[in-house]
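Subject: sequence -> structure tokens, single chain

Hey, anyone have a minute? Need the predicted structure for the following. Not urgent.
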Amino acid sequence: MARDMSDKDILKMELEQLQKEVKNTREPVSKTAKEICEWVEAQSAEDPLIKGVPEDKNPFREKGGCIIT
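Reply:
Had a minute. Here:
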């Protein structure tokens, strides 16, 4: 799409995007990082990568062994 546009059109699109982004509220990284860490710790009890999946509920478990005769 950008190949079909002139430099002026591309700059106009970038300016419009920047005008939209400047209206977004900003939060300090120190605050949001703390909130993310708290959320991850709160959700860790339900995380199957941390807790593991019970064998009877694991859809990827081996259903039967391979027998070579």
